[in-house]
C-alpha cells in the first residue's frame, strides 16, 4: 500500500505506526495549505523579509535565497521556515496580488480560459436581454483600428428588413439612419418615437436624393429645405442657355449672345433685349418736312416669340436725327433714319428691341 494519497500527496497512517499524530497533523497541515488555495503573489523570485505564518507564494522561474531551486513550486511560511509544495495540473488559486483566479497549467499560473463563442449575451456594466444581446452602459464606446482602417458592419437578412442606427432620448426614438425596409440609405426623424418623417433618402442606383428635407418642386421655397440642383440657381447655371417648359424655366437665369446683327440678352422670365449698331447712313432723301436715309432692315440677333411685337427704340447717331421704324415682326424690323435737315454726314444709328422670347 502507498504511504501517500495519489492527488494531494497526503501521508497515510500506517499499521502499528508510532506517534501517529505527527503523520495526521502533517496531512492536516498540507490540506490547510492547498485547499481553498490563496497565494500572496504569483511569479515571485525573492522571499519576503518578514513573512506571516501561513503566507503562501507561487515561485517564479528564477528564485533566489531560501527559494533557490524551487522554481514553479508553492512556498509556505510555517513555524519559522519555508515549506514547499509542488502544484498539480489544474490546481486553482486566488492571486491576492492581482485579484484574479489563476490555474496551474503545468508550467505557469494562468488566468482561466474564457469561452467567447456563441455566448447567449454580454452585458458591460448593465444587463443584456434576448433582443439586446450586447449591452454597454458607459460614457463612451471606442472601436479602434488594428494597424489600419476599421469598419462597423450592420448586416440584415434581406432587403425588406432593417439595418440601421437608432438614436434615442430617454428610450424614445427620435432619429434613425440606415437601410429601412429597402436598400436605399435614408435618415428619418420623429418628435415622439411614433410619427416618423423621412427627411432624406438616397437612391442606391442613381445616388439622387429626395425626402422631406429636399425641394419637392421648383416653386417649393419652404424655409430650411435643401435646394435641388435642377430647381435652384447658383454659379453653375446663372449664366447659360435659357430654356422653359410650359412657361416654367428649366435652364439658366440669363443667356447672352452675339451675332453679325447685334447682341441679345434673354432672361428666365421670358424677357428678351436685342441691341445693335446699325449701318452708317446719311439723311438726304426728302420726305415731306423731314429728310431720311434709305430704307434698311435690322434682323434681330435672336428671334422673339411668334405673334409678339417687340418695342423698338433707338438713336439716329447725332443731334437732330432719330430712328423711324415700321411694324416689327418676331425676326426683323424695317427702319429709316430721319433728320430735320438734309445731312450728308454718314453716321451709324443704334437700336434696341425689347420683347419676349416665349
Poorly predicted parts: none
Q: Which structural category do the helix and sheet elements fall into?
A: mainly beta
Secondary structure tally, helices: 1
Query: Mind describing the biggest β-sheet?
Result: 5 strands, antiparallel
Helix content: under 10%
Number of strands: 29
Q: Using the 3D structure, state the CATH architecture of the domain at 255-356.
A: Sandwich
CATH structural fold name of the domain at 255-356: Immunoglobulin-like
* Proportion of beta-strand residues: 35-45%
**The CATH C-level class name of the domain at 255-356:** Mainly Beta
Cα gyration radius (Å): 50 Å
Output the strand order for the largest sheet: 11-12-13-14-15
Average pLDDT, rounded to a whole number, is 92
State the shape: rod-shaped
Distance N to C terminus: 119 Å
In N-to-C order, the SSE pattern is: HEEEEEEEEEEEEEEEEEEEEEEEEEEEEE
SSE order and pairing:
Blueprint: H1 20-34, E1 38-39, E2 41-44, E3 56-59, E4 74-78, E5 81-85, E6 92-95, E7 100-104, E8 109-110, E9 122-124, E10 134-136, E11 162-169, E12 172-180, E13 185-189, E14 197-202, E15 209-210, E16 244-245, E17 248-249, E18 254-259, E19 262-267, E20 271-277, E21 281-283, E22 285-287, E23 290-292, E24 296-299, E25 311-315, E26 321-325, E27 332-339, E28 343-347, E29 350-356
